[in-house]
């Protein structure tokens, strides 16, 4: 996949799947805009990637910060062709009767509203350009309940609907909106899940998780026409046929 001449804005690029995606997209020729709250981490990664990377500190839970991040991406790189809605959180993990309502809402603000904020800020730019690709990291948690994860499951179910909505409203104007369900991935998020000890996911061995470059390479594949059949839908990295197409199996 050659992304020369394309610009990708990747949220949650300070570590994990987002950081891998930034490196892999840049290697494929893209100019990248790295978004996260951790300014030092994205600045360091941008330095490592080189002049085609810019670090944009931003809390995606606040719309005005996301809107500014898109504006900063445009002034640094001149366009926005690919949005990767990757940033997400799972803490605090808690049963519903004990969950702190404000902290529960904070997760919705990031995982669900943050995805809407990204789409809302990027869509006018992409529509003006005649099209663009919006990739959102989903989860198996969008499809079924997982103990202790009422906030996370609800937010991922909603985020999947946002992909379907973007596809419904804008496919005919050149917008490619797709979701990626990555399976379990060896990142900080899985460390937090393990520490909670609450559900079967927390009991998995580290070796059960795929490395973060697997979803990152799949995101790159999803930028191409071969993934067009998944527009408005989800690509599952548990699917062996997808792994084979991406070159992971
Ligand atoms: N790991 C898995 O097994 C797994 C499975 C299914 C889906 N996912 C999804 O994959 C995505 C990436 O997760 P990961 O596993 O790579 O986790 P991670 O290593 O914990 O990374 C999460 C990223 O999101 C950023 N972030 C969190 N809140 C943010 C906010 N308010 N504004 C901007 N950035 C924010 C973090 O940066 P800062 O803290 O610096 O802001 C960090 O870069 C998430 O959407 C997650 O739900 C992960």
UniProtKB/TrEMBL annotation:
Pfam families: adh_short. CDD domains: SDR_c. Keywords: Oxidoreductase. InterPro entries: NAD(P)-bd_dom_sf (IPR036291), SDR_fam (IPR002347). Gene3D superfamilies: NAD(P)-binding Rossmann-like Domain. Belongs to the short-chain dehydrogenases/reductases (SDR) family. This is SDR family oxidoreductase. It comes from Tropicibacter oceani.
């Amino acid at each position: 996949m050659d992304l020369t001449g394309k610009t990708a804005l990747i949220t949650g690029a300070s570590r994990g799947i987002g950081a891998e995606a930034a490196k892999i997209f840049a290697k494929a020729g893209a100019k990248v805009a790295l978004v996260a709250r951790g300014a030092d981490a994205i600045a360091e990664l941008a330095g490592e990637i080189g002049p085609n990377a810019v670090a944009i500190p931003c809390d995606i839970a606040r719309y005005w910060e996301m809107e500014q991040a898109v504006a900063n991406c445009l002034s640094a790189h001149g366009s926005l062709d690919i949005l990767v809605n990757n940033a997400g959180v799972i803490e605090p993990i808690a049963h519903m009767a004990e969950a702190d309502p404000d902290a529960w809402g904070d997760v919705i603000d990031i995982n669900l509203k943050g995805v809407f904020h990204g789409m809302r800020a990027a869509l006018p730019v992409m529509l003006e350009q005649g099209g663009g690709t919006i990739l959102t990291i989903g989860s198996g948690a969008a499809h079924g309940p997982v103990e202790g994860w009422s906030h996370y499951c609800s937010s991922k179910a909603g985020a999947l609907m946002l992909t379907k909505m973007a596809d419904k409203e804008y496919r005919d104007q050149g917008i490619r909106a797709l979701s990626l369900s990555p399976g379990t991935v060896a990142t900080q998020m899985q460390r937090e899940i393990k520490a909670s000890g609450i559900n079967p996911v927390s009991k998995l061995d580290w070796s059960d998780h795929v490395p973060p470059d697997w979803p990152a390479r799949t995101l790159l594949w999803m930028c191409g026409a071969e993934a067009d059949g998944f527009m408005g839908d989800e690509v599952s990295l548990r699917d062996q046929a997808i792994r084979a197409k991406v070159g992971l199996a």
